[in-house]
Amino acid sequence: MSGLTTQLPAIGFTLPESSGLQSDNTNGKTTMEQWQEGAGNRTTSCTHRRFLVGSQNPVVQKSCSPTLTQKLAKKSKRIIDNSVSADKTAKKGSSEGQKRSLKKGERELLKKNVALRSQQPYMTLEETMRHRNSYFHRLCVDTLAGGFHETFTELVNLARQEQQQREQEGAAAAAQPSSPSRPPLATQPEKLDTMRSCLARAEEADMKSNFEEEYKAQHELARYFNQTGDAWLEDHMLAACLNTSHKVSKCKASNQRIAESNCNIGVSLENQSRWSTAAAYFESFYNLTACQYWEDDNGRLLRSIACEHLTRIYTKMAERVSPVDRDNAMAYLLKAYDKAKEGDSNEALGATSYQLGLAYCDRGDQERAIKYLTVFMEVCQKQNDQIGLGESYEAIAKAYESQGNMTDAKTYLQRYLEVAQSSGHRDALYRASLSLGEIYNLTGDFAAATDCFQRAYELCAASSPDTSSARLAQVLCGVTRAHSLLLPYNTRVVDLPSATPALLRWKEQRKWQEDVE
Amino acid sequence: MRVVNICTATQERSPGTVCLKMAATISSVQCMGKITENEMQRQTDVITSIKPIALPKGVKKLCELCKKPAFMQCLQCRVTFYCGSDHQTSDWEGIHDQICTQLIPLRSPEPHFSTESKRKEHADELFQQKRQLLQLTRAVGQKLLFEGKAEKAIPAVLQSLHFAIEVYGLSSIELVTSYLMLAEACIGLHRLKEAEDYLSQAQWTVLMVPDCDYRIKSQVHRQIGRLCEVKGDYEEALRHLAEDVYHCSIVTSTDDVETSGGYFHMGNIFLKLGKTDKAETLYYRVLKIWHKYLTGIVTFNVEEEEKSSSLLTSPKMINLGKAQEAEAVKVLSAIHAWYSEMSDRHQLEFSYSCKTQALLNFVIGDRSQAKVCAERALEALGDDEKKQHTRRAIASFLNLCRTTPQPSLSRR
Fold this sequence. Notes:
The complex is a heterodimer.
Chain A: H1 4-7, H2 31-38, H3 44-54, H4 58-75, H5 84-96, H6 104-119, H7 125-132, H8 135-145, H9 149-175, H10 189-207, H11 211-228, H12 231-252, H13 256-271, H14 275-288, H15 302-321, H16 326-342, H17 346-363, H18 366-383, H19 386-403, H20 406-423, H21 426-443, H22 446-463, H23 468-494, H24 499-509
Helix pairs in contact in A: 2-3, 3-4, 3-5, 8-9, 8-10, 9-10, 10-11, 11-12, 12-13, 13-14, 13-15, 14-15, 15-16, 16-17, 17-18, 18-19, 19-20, 19-21, 20-21, 21-22, 22-23
Chain B: H1 2-13, H2 20-27, H3 37-46, E1 47-49, E2 72-74, E3 81-82, H4 85-99, H5 103-107, H6 116-146, H7 150-168, H8 175-188, H9 192-208, H10 214-231, H11 234-251, H12 257-272, H13 276-311, H14 322-341, H15 347-364, H16 367-381, H17 388-403, H18 406-410
Antiparallel strand pairs in B: 1-2, 2-3
Helix pairs in contact in B: 4-7, 6-7, 6-8, 7-8, 8-9, 8-10, 9-10, 10-11, 10-12, 11-12, 12-13, 13-15, 14-15, 15-16, 16-17
């Protein structure tokens, strides 16, 4: 209780030694008595008071008090609470009786402690606060004292939002203790520092109505969150970017920043697999870039970037819905194809046209399938993409085949085989051989078919003779060989009436008789 | 000469019993205004002089305010003493008038009771009475502070501190409120050293009770911030105000009315530091917070009134508390004055500030003033196409001012 007065300077103010506020005259106690009671406290300054008070010799009191009070005043500006020995002395003293004066040894010990303490560094109010409060607290106060109240608001609200999220997840997480828990935002100094610096920069720029700069700062923070993997924080910052971009567009009469932020939000949403919303943002990005020749940092037209994003997202959406809803999948693919055609990426165009071709093929619309596949083929030719070319040939051949156009199918498969041979791609070669063999088989050219299957078998047998593909080729080869024997069998066995008895005879004798013929 | 000697001797003998700080505070309390003849008459009715030297040995009568040896006695209660008529007048006007008779049982010697239970009963009674007096003195002090009568408030607040110490003990958190009020009064009277001492006490108490109410924490920091501001230590002031805002926003929200006070003072400091842009954003933020809050109240009250008029029940209105009202008036008028100076540059903000003023007047119950403010807001808005929405909002509010009957909302 009485330990308050002289400790006070430690928190920034100096108070006169005997503050009247402390005294409580209703108790009828003098300050001295209170001091003596206070000596039992563990605070070191109390020890000194006891020393001061306990010595009944007025001379000692007189001689000691000025120096001691001086020391007290000095000492109290520091945070010192590590002197165990002083505490011990205090305890001992208080237990043995209040009015006993200290022995010489104890006095020396005390003096030593005072000397020790005087060597400790001075601490300012700020430093003591640093020890006392959490990092988040300090950061917030620093930010506010710098006048960045919007930044502060953002920090506090984000931390609170996270806290609420945690609490909501808390119940769910309790059921699954194995789920990894992320540390709360308020305990991650690195993140907090980055947030603070970026947000403060943004706020400063906002104050000067320099919205371009504000946008950049916010965008930087969003990218940082992207790296650290905090999706919700990234979303939050991207939304802030979008807001700022509207301000930018008012100043600069250019919607480029709006378009960019729409694109960024789309990408972020796409990463979280929220495709339909992402597609909406990409659409607005696409619409904003209409008739504009904006370029990004790498000199690429934003328009084509928009097309690329849209193509990708529509393809993904098509993939997702295709097993359930083929019409919708087709619609998405068509949209993707449109955007790909507009964009400058040949690869995207090729990929979408190939998928579209396949989809049409599935639906039985061979005409269109061949049309789109041809586009793919052309793209591959332009790009000199041997594998893609092979795939396109194969797909076109299949389309022709299901159309019943065997000659065209055969030509494309032959081309496929050529491409496969020239590229040396073993798998493609195998598939090409098999397909071609099948076509030959269907058209009745069994010798050619056998050749093809033979080649396919050899291809496999060379590396792994006992795999399913090798066996398949083997079987097919056998089948076609059998097929090739059908004609002689028909002409020589079925058509000749004497052939069957001759065969039976041979079967009994197991000897080849030339005269049977 | 002898009297003086005795005085000093008394003081020396019992350093603990004398509230030196209070003495310092009060010794500089000057007699308020001129004492009229009527007053003189009243004083002679109420007080009588005593001679300290004639008192029995061991009995010391001390001044109620400064704890120096007393020469006067209150005739009504006969338990209160003063060193001079100055302090008697201050105390009478400040608080004694209202608590005079209630002090008698507290200060007269304990009557003799034969049983333990009786004694306990008596003690309990006294305790309850002290609590009531604490509340009363605190309320009176607060009211006087809100009215800006810092000097007059000091006796009441000091009394409240006495009672708080008696009821809760020396190191209780309950004392902080009184310390803060004293500090506020001292800052108001520009007695910085004393204000600093009181605030140190308050801060220390808060430090010792780490999980005390956030309001107390933030209030302590706010007062310290204001003190530093008056002293010219702007860096320190900003830090303390930031602490204030932090504590408030952690518990309530960053855009709460309670938080806005911190923002306002920070704005003041930034203005003094010459950082006008920062000050402006802070002021605008305070305006926004109050605007939202007051709009909420007005809408609620109007709806409530309609409901009650259809159901013929009495409406349950929200009113600003006294403290809040005082703060609102102070803060908003300061901001309004600032924007009026800058009205040529910040037309939109000026109009916004006018509207907030209008809302405040409406909530307080001053319809005509609200109307004037709203009209000014409309005028300041100019006729820009983009501001149509705002215009319409103000116009509808103006309409509300005209149509709703004056007394119904101002019933307080």
